Amino acid sequence: MRANDQSSSTPETKKAVVEQHIPVKNVNVATNKKTGKARYKPGDTIYVRNITGFFQKLRQRINLVFFGLFLIVPWLQFNGHQAVLFDISEQRFTIFNLTLWPQDLTLLAWIFIFGAFVLFFVTTFLGRVWCGYTCPQTVWTFIFIWFEEKIEGTANQRRKLDAQKRNVNKLTRKTLKHSAWLLFSLLTAMTFAGYFSPMQELFINVFTLNTTVMMAGILAFFTFATYGNAGFMRETVCLHMCPYARFQSAMFDKDTLTVSYDAKRGESRGPRGRKQDHKAMGLGDCIDCNLCVEVCPTGIDIRNGLQYECINCGACVDACSGVMSKMNYEQGLIRYTTEHELEGKKVHLVRSKLIGYAILLVIMSSMLVLEIVNRVPLSLDIMRDRTELAKENFNGDIENVYTLKILNMSQTDNTYKLSVKGIDNTTWHGEQEVVVGAAKVFTLPISISVDPYELESYMNDITFVIEQVDPKDDVRIEQESRFFNKR
């Protein structure tokens, strides 16, 4: 069989197989003209150069808004309680006037599914803008770089400082920088922990050194995790640890807006004077200043084409735009564009994949809204007495004992009325109207008795009904159980 398979492989078949392969693109690594060595190698420290421009201002303002919300939200109060609190020990998540319990797992699932499809939709349309503008790893990395610039100076100054031997100036600046990093990391850890533990109590306990050993360990972990990720690992997290960078290409197509270099216009690249006619010199618009690489937080050269390391932050766009302005060239040598536009083809912003994600988003958001609207903030668990399924009381009636657990899932104290149906002429022994505190569980032991002539079989279906007394709120649930007769 193997010989027959080999003989059937014609040159035409081999050619067809080869044509199905993705063509390999040779990437020329930028080298230093004097030494001939690579300018940037994996593992080298990346000294990100500061740059100003439209996209950097936009990114900074977006970062400021989200970072401000991150700091402020745990301090907000709503109806006498912390507005946002994910209390794992009490197994309840509070988001303003909405309290979620383990029983609301489907609602949490819809929230996560909705968030995932928002990410898919945005990635298909705008590429990795999440990474460049809102990802916590990127935001904290740029904040740490800001501390570096204020304490150690510009990228060139930081590079020279690291190359120096130990001296008082270097030791002082390094100590100040790492102290600022650690203090900021501690603030981050405390704020993050405030989403899972009462914020005011947490801050008081930390500053009075009265926190628990477990909380101290949690704060220490997140402090050093932030310090390590944003201070040292930085682009390593984006390149080697983040799964989003790996599967994002499945959502890309040739109409996705990404940061791209216009090679047709930029090549051949090379230095020239501002007043020289570069067209007559056989050069493109790229002056090979390497500024686009120096401002890149992941250290890539965008001129090598689309790369998974690119986080779409637009730093290289602003850097190149500044150079083009100084050279009196047209803007957009590096810009947000699509592969189809670079190839001179028609761009389809509205396309089948994007429409598909939009339809799924509408469906998911509708399901999420329906889940929230139809959610009943009340739960009832029924536990039977397992030691004796049924007994005969002094009246000769058959009696079953139950323990009812009533969970008030709302944020106000409520009065509930209980009843039972399914069997005629039942007698309720115990309270039938109870007050349950906000976000509390009320345990109510009761028993139901009935004349044995009303029972049709050994095991009979009954339904417990619980409804809120307040006529303004139509809160009512039913829970099935069983009533046993004596054998």
TrEMBL record:
PROSITE patterns registered for this protein in UniProt: 4FE4S_FER_1, 4FE4S_FER_2
Pfam families: Fer4_18, Fer4_5, FixG_C
Domain 4Fe-4S ferredoxin-type as annotated: residue spans: 277-305
Signal peptide (from-to): none
Residues annotated as transmembrane: 62-78, 107-127, 179-196, 202-224, 354-373
Keyword Iron included in the entry's annotation: yes
Keyword list, A-Z: 4Fe-4S, Electron transport, Iron, Iron-sulfur, Membrane, Metal-binding, Transmembrane, Transmembrane helix, Transport
Domain of life: Bacteria
One GO molecular-function entry: 4 iron, 4 sulfur cluster binding
GO cellular component: plasma membrane
NCBIfam families: ccoG_rdxA_fixG
Record PANTHER family: FERREDOXIN-TYPE PROTEIN NAPH
Protein name per UniProt: Cytochrome c oxidase accessory protein CcoG
Source organism of this protein record: Colwellia ponticola
Gene coding for it: ccoG
